[in-house]
Amino acid sequence: MKQIDSFSEYGRPIGRRALGLWALGVGLSACSGGGDNPASLPVVTLEPQDAVVTEGETARFTVTAQNETQLRYQWLRNGTVIEGATSSSLVVSNALRSDHGARFSVVLTNAVGAVHSRSAVLRVHAAGQVVASDWSESLTAYASPESTSPAEFGYIAIGTGAWVYAAAFEAGDYVLRRSRADGSVTETFRLPRVPNTYTQIAVWEDPATREILVARCLIASVALNINTYQAVGGGIYRLEPVSGQFIPLFESDRITPSGLARDTSGNLYTVDLKTGDVLKITAGSLQITTLYQVSGQQPLTAGGVPYDFVLRSKGLVAVTADGTVYATLVTSSPRVAAAYQLYGEQWVRVRNGKAEMISVRTPAQTNGITWGMGARGNSVFFLYKSAQSTLVRKVDAEGNVLTVAGTWGSQEKTQFGSPGVLGRTSKWIGIGSDGQLYLEGWDAAGPRFFGVLLPADPSPF
């Protein structure tokens, strides 16, 4: 905080002498009117804080000071007075990209004089654009709506070279289909079924080498109780497209890998569906390290957990370009609302070897869960769905949580692919090598594909 030397009024600078005479006049006026007069300059107790929003959203700046009833306020943008901005708060509605980097401060004045607050910086991220996809309509033969069955059927991943991956169940086996987006090529790889289990599949394709990795999560019915399920193990495999063989990197009945990501050093990351723990599998040695342990919680099995929690849950994990790991365990079970609070949105972030819980929602956004996650650059993007809204959001490198596409409270059951609207049938497929997020949606005509053009992070200043 500093005593003000000069500021501009509607673009016209006001010098120290003029300001001093004006403040003196305020003081004389106050004295002539009687009453309590301040004995010192204004004292700010809470400075205006920096704000980060997506274009079109509202930013708010607030200052708090002692003896507020005796103060006058004047907000400035980049040193120039904002006409009419004379309260303790400033609202910037419908923020534009041109507002990125603007600095907002406030002059507080009483009978003694004036002080100038710190300058708060406004950062404005570009919004994503919902666009139609040029993928072949023939691909929709393999698509399916959000499944309530244990397996994650339908399109589940996108690789480089416009390869699209879909999971299906065929002739008693789980299969992974790889198709060209133009529908010209389709390959089927069979993953033999383990007796008395269900399978979830996660796919990760190396953008440089196009190596294909597959995480298999096994879920089984508890003996003598067909309505209770538990995670029973699985493995991570390398898919050899020529032979169609799944080569195991590791298999275990103690760890149930759900979700899959890899960093630039070749280390793998997954979520153990048994415990919710976030795991790292070191390249080469395949040593398994727990990055974050869900302490004090029971394993996600039959004991005290509604039967369909494990059955309809999955792990999500992503690694950004700077090596930051994001992970969460989510469930689509309507019977475990309490578990939404416990697991669904309590994300884990591991950065520079330090694991911490983070929140991706505000107190007013308590009934939604994450339906897909992927990284681009140093940001992680995710599909957030609630009873009111379907949104594409992101967490940037500084930890800011921003809405990229969609609008709060604009839930549409069937509409998708129109500007700013994401229907509740939207399903995450993945972020392509072109930087675009691909989604699948359903309406009365059946499944269709669309995308969200993900904006780059704004430049520093």
Automatic annotation (TrEMBL):
Residues 42-123 form the Ig-like domain. SMART domains: IG. Pfam families: Ig_3 (PF13927). This is Ig-like domain-containing protein.
